[in-house]
Amino acid sequence: MSKVKVRIINQSNNPLPEYATEQAAGMDIRAFLEAPIVLNPLERFLVPTGLFIELPKGYEAQIRPRSGLAIKQGLTCLNSPGTIDADYRGEVKIILINLSQEPQTIHPGDRIAQMVVHDVERVKWKPVKSISVTKRHDGGFGHTGKS
């Protein structure tokens, strides 16, 4: 696996984002809070992390939900995956929503999301009069799940 160097400022008292296992694709991101917050059902909150990153040109960071939070507490990320562009320099913040039926508490330092850094391909559009036909053609929105 190649390793890309990313400059980071950590204004929180949490450790830097890190991979939980040797083969993990995403790094755990932690909440930088002064006190616990309670999210009521269907309530959303922009959680600060205290992290500021400088991605190299040609890279992005994606913010994704943590599966354990989703299944155990009903907490997930909105705008998922959220994209952090290489030219963004603001604080990394995570939009969390409580999709459970009970209030959920987020404590300072809780692992609330994961970040995946990846290279980005740029598109150059080629206007044409037609595109190729496939067996699927224009079938979408679940059409392959029914016979």
Automatic annotation (TrEMBL):
<dbReference type="InterPro" id="IPR036157">
    <property type="entry name" value="dUTPase-like_sf"/>
</dbReference>
<dbReference type="InterPro" id="IPR029054">
    <property type="entry name" value="dUTPase-like"/>
</dbReference>
<dbReference type="InterPro" id="IPR008181">
    <property type="entry name" value="dUTPase"/>
</dbReference>
<dbReference type="InterPro" id="IPR033704">
    <property type="entry name" value="dUTPase_trimeric"/>
</dbReference>
<comment type="similarity">
    <text>Belongs to the dUTPase family.</text>
</comment>
<feature type="binding site">
    <location>
        <begin position="83"/>
        <end position="85"/>
    </location>
    <ligand>
        <name>substrate</name>
    </ligand>
</feature>
<dbReference type="GO" id="GO:0004170">
    <property type="term" value="F:dUTP diphosphatase activity"/>
</dbReference>
<feature type="binding site">
    <location>
        <begin position="66"/>
        <end position="68"/>
    </location>
    <ligand>
        <name>substrate</name>
    </ligand>
</feature>
<protein>
    <recommendedName>
        <fullName>Deoxyuridine 5'-triphosphate nucleotidohydrolase</fullName>
        <ecNumber>3.6.1.23</ecNumber>
    </recommendedName>
</protein>
<comment type="pathway">
    <text>Pyrimidine metabolism; dUMP biosynthesis; dUMP from dCTP (dUTP route): step 2/2.</text>
</comment>
<dbReference type="Pfam" id="PF00692">
    <property type="entry name" value="dUTPase"/>
</dbReference>
<keyword id="KW-0460">Magnesium</keyword>
<dbReference type="GO" id="GO:0000287">
    <property type="term" value="F:magnesium ion binding"/>
</dbReference>
<feature type="binding site">
    <location>
        <position position="79"/>
    </location>
    <ligand>
        <name>substrate</name>
    </ligand>
</feature>
<comment type="function">
    <text>This enzyme is involved in nucleotide metabolism: it produces dUMP, the immediate precursor of thymidine nucleotides and it decreases the intracellular concentration of dUTP so that uracil cannot be incorporated into DNA.</text>
</comment>
<keyword id="KW-0378">Hydrolase</keyword>
<feature type="domain" description="dUTPase-like">
    <location>
        <begin position="15"/>
        <end position="145"/>
    </location>
</feature>
<dbReference type="GO" id="GO:0046081">
    <property type="term" value="P:dUTP catabolic process"/>
</dbReference>
<keyword id="KW-0479">Metal-binding</keyword>
<dbReference type="GO" id="GO:0006226">
    <property type="term" value="P:dUMP biosynthetic process"/>
</dbReference>
<keyword id="KW-0546">Nucleotide metabolism</keyword>
